[in-house]
Amino acid sequence: MSTLGRAVRAGAGRHRVQTVVITMVVLIAVTSAVLGGSLLVASRAPFDRAFGQQQGAHLTAQFGPAATVAQLTSSAGAAGISAAAGPFPTTQVSTLGPGGRPRPPMTVVGRSAPDGPVDQVTLTAGRWATAPGELVLAEDSRFRGPPVKIGTVWTVADPPGSPAVTVVGIARSVSRTADAWVTPEQVTAWTGERGPAGYQMLYRLTVADTAAQVEAARAAIAATVPAGALTGAVSWLVTRQDAVGQAALLVPFLIAFGVLGVVMAVLIIGNVIAGAVSTGTRRIGILKALGFTPAQVVRAYLGQALMPAVAGAVLGVVAGNLLTVPVLAQTNRLYGTSDNGVTLWVDALVAGGALVVVTLTAWAAAARAGRLRSVDAIAVGRTPRPGRGQWASRLTGRIPVPRPMSLGLAHPFARPLRSGGIVAAIAFGTAAVTFAVGLATSLSLIQEAEDLADVQVVPRMEAPGPGAGGPGREPMPNGPGPLTDPAGVVAAITAQAGTGGYVGQARTEVTVAGITGSLTTVALTGTDGARYYRMVSGSWLTGPGQIVVSTPFLTAAGKEVGDTVVLTDHGTDLTARIVGEVFNTDDKGMQILTDLATLRPAEPGLSPEIFLVSVRPGTDAATYASGLETALRSLGAAAVPVEHGTDELVLIIDTLTALLSVMLVVVAGLGVLNVVVLDTRERVHDLGVHKALGMTPRQTTTMVISSVLVTGLIGGAIGAAVGVALQRAVLGAMGGSAGFTLPASIVDVYSPTELLLFGLGGLVIAVGGALLPAGWAAGTRTVTALRTE
Amino acid sequence: MTAPLIELRDVTRRYDDGPPALRELSLTVRPGESVAILGPSGSGKSTLLNLIAGLDRPSTGTVTVDGVAVDKLGEAASARYRRARIGLVFQFFNLLDDLTVADNVMLPAQLAGMARAAAQRRATELLTVLGVDRHAAAYPGRLSGGERQRVAVARALMNRPALLLADEPTGALDTAAGVEVQRLLTELHADGQTIVLVTHDLALAENCATRTVQLRDGRVAADTTAPVR
Ligand SMILES: Nc1ncnc2c1ncn2[C@@H]1O[C@H](COP(=O)(O)OP(=O)(O)O)[C@@H](O)[C@H]1O
Ligand SMILES: [Mg+2]
């Protein structure tokens, strides 16, 4: 062992660059694999884990005043119930934010504590409400309004005449059981002698894996209270569906990066070891002449790869976990989980897997060394090299560029296999960046499609003036009603300076022959409808009698763009032609978009509930909204600027994209570095000759850098193409699994210029990797180089 | 008297370990001279040549060639200096294996920025003069030792150097090939080329040099100018 060990150590010392490259490549591959793996594990069932941690409610039931508290308490004994919480009094409350802006009405639950047997709500800021006038707001990642600060005071618009409330805490309920919580006394105060609007009961079930099991429990509960007293029940399966849909986006992303990382690591480590064997050929011959067996020689090379690989794997596990923590902090916020992200079995699996891959790759590459015959090996370097790639020298010599450049251009052809490996590494690096940027762009376009409007006009929800509504007005159960004067609103919008366009929306339910259940139909008026939807095929609405739908609708109805469908709206049959397919995920893609006039024959009274307004470029949405607000005040409407907050998931994906592509680019660059160092070492004597003949340091640098231009260009071109194909495949798979066809405007995110830039990115990687060794080559002392034989 | 082409003054070259390779050596060479440097192995001959070529720098002392302070040149300037004024011939030829004979010969001119066509004309001319023009398109590996050294001389002469430096040009050749190269260098000298050559080969020194300098332990032990033949 001592001789072998010394031989290996000497080898590792002599090949410092190879040692560094192997360490770095393994470090980066392990870091990204640990990061990806931990996130994958963490995102695989973040909802389930959070749900488990909070003892989430399998069934959230809402009861009307018909049920007594005693009945509700005893409903916990119904068949299939393992735990219950409640009854909690509930009511609807409308508040006004700063500046009198109406906030969406909230379902408020009276609870004296966040914990309990079911739905142990996590306080993320502040404290629980302990006195009337205090409110704990539910944090909802999907709510895109500005964040609410602790201590914010809201005027209560409805019930009218109520004192203001102060936000004392922010909490998260995975089961989404409320928009806000107050003390039970506060609910009683709001509802007065009328008694609470109802009660909420939260149940955990003994089995809740299928919708049928949850439904059975719901029926059992309903049987314990008077008929009609159970007014609503939400299954945890529905809530989970909503939450997991987003996390699933991360999976294809991480898998794509993982595969790229592993392939690149194999390529580069294979190349490094093969290179070490090739430059060490003479050394191998001498070792064998001294009596080393082939197996010992192969083991020596394995050691040369494994020592830095182990170091890289250890460092990579540490770095991967360090990086996972902040990223998971974001997912934790997104899902209300509390994970530190350290998953030991992922660490062990990744580190072990990396070492196995390194061993196999190094074994394959070093096998040649074991087979080499001693005499041949020692003879290397004594006889002139066979003229590999001479044809390339002949060819490039004729290119009218400075001679150092044409000399360098021929270099990769002298070692086609090694150059092929490096083309592949550059291609993977470029593909990673191209793919990642494209996918991230598409994902943010998908998110963006949801809030293209700059300002919303909604009904004002102030306390109604005397005579306007009268006391005892019921809280609106289904959000805002229609605007009282849509024509006036349109006039105000049109008159306002800075208006780019607008669309009014009214919602109604229709049935369509062949599709069970009713479908939400959004009836549009205004100038700007097309702006808020991305077309997949066909065209936008041009008049009444036309509808535009999404892929799931077409699939469910068995229709195509151009077909005619019959809509039944309030008993009236309306014939409409499908003129276009849009990408619209609302109502799980079953929403129908049409002109308001289409539905007029069935619903003469249908009028817009909301106007989406886009402002002209350069107009400030907030200023515009407050100007419009003044004009709308007398019309019972309010203008609210839409916050274009970046979605957290998009933020996570962007962070990962940046991180992982930088890592893969660095790996590719290291691969280039290693090859150029090998090349330079093999050519060091020629380098001396060149310098003796008058090649300046700058010309030497030019020659070395030119030697990677061809590989960089080819790798970049292949990589950009592969990246685009990958982006399309992954997006297609993601859309397809959700039942959607993605519009070209979301998929085709690469402009020709960008593609060109990505292609040239390969060149950047190549040149970046060659810069350091080019500097070394330029600095090589001529006499030393000439003495090397 | 004409101004010296080479002037070394009190040159010492010390390596990290061992005694200095050159000790306070002074030497002057005039244009048109052909100087043979003789001496036992390790006496500092190659070191001296490297200093004149600007491939190496003295520890102390000055090296001036054709008015250029060679010891003061930076890397780039010394490359340009070699390109313009020095032709180098080595014991083991140092031809580039992946370039054709013609491309090898053209290289110094191309590094200096000469266009390919012009370089090609000059290379053909030189290869013809040296009798190896029929190998122009071949690769050096296919040539005999003598032929390779003639190609190397052609390459050294490409930029019409003021000074031709040769380090044991016949050291790797058999006797017949050695004689060929000797004749070639003699002819070049007769045409007025200044030559400094290092050799063990007394016949070469006698036939080709007008002056012999004996080195011993990094010092000039003898400096004899041969009678005009
Ligand atoms: N790069 C070097 N590093 C260390 N010592 C060197 C180096 N080059 C030459 N020497 C030493 O300098 C002395 C002179 O070498 P050299 O000029 O090559 O002798 P010669 O050419 O006369 O045989 C020798 O002792 C040699 O070992
Ligand atoms: Mg010597």
TrEMBL record, chain A:
Membrane-topology descriptor: Multi-pass membrane protein
Organism taxonomic ancestry: Bacteria, Bacillati, Actinomycetota, Actinomycetes, Micromonosporales
TM helices/strands, residue ranges: 20-42, 219-238, 250-277, 298-322, 342-366, 422-446, 658-680, 701-726, 755-778
Keyword Translocase: no
Gene Ontology cellular component list: plasma membrane
Cell compartment(s), UniProt: Cell membrane
Record bears the keyword Cell membrane: yes
Record PANTHER family: ABC TRANSPORTER PERMEASE YTRF, MEMBRANE COMPONENT OF TRANSPORTER-RELATED
Keywords: Cell membrane, Membrane, Transmembrane, Transmembrane helix
Protein species of origin: Actinoplanes auranticolor
Protein's name according to its UniProt entry: ABC3 transporter permease C-terminal domain-containing protein
Span list, region Disordered: 90-116
Family statement: Belongs to the ABC-4 integral membrane protein family.
A family per Pfam: FtsX
Source organism, top-level taxon: Bacteria
Example of a GO MF term: transmembrane transporter activity
Domain ABC3 transporter permease C-terminal: residue ranges: 256-368, 659-774
Automatic annotation (TrEMBL), chain B:
UniProt entry keywords in alphabetical sequence: ATP-binding, Nucleotide-binding, Transport
Gene Ontology CC terms: membrane protein complex; plasma membrane
CDD domains in the cross-refs: ABC_MJ0796_LolCDE_FtsE
Molecular function in Gene Ontology: ATP binding; ATP hydrolysis activity; transmembrane transporter activity
Domain of life of the organism encoding this protein: Bacteria
Domain ABC transporter per the UniProt entry, residue ranges: 6-228
One Pfam family from the record: ABC_tran
PANTHER family for this protein: IMPORT ATP-BINDING PROTEIN
Protein name: ABC transporter ATP-binding protein
Species of the source: Actinoplanes auranticolor
